[in-house]
Give the backbone structure.
Amino acid sequence: MAVKVQTTKRGDPHELRNIFLQYASTEVDGEHYMTPEDFVQHYLGLYNDPNSNPKIVQLLAGVADQTKDGKCQRNFWADYYSSSYPF
């Protein structure tokens, strides 16, 4: 009996870049970044209540902030959603 395996299409690097730039509110030396709030509250749409605990936002953003510097870089964000793309 053959097993059918469903695959997921990789995200287009240009589309991922455009999505990232739509939510990235910080730019340093020409490099765009998402803040923890950008990623969790604006992109994911979580913890938007004014009384939300900011530490929870920071903790959740740590998934995409691999350098733990408070900035979600585009390449790490893309890795979160797709295989590594150089864009």
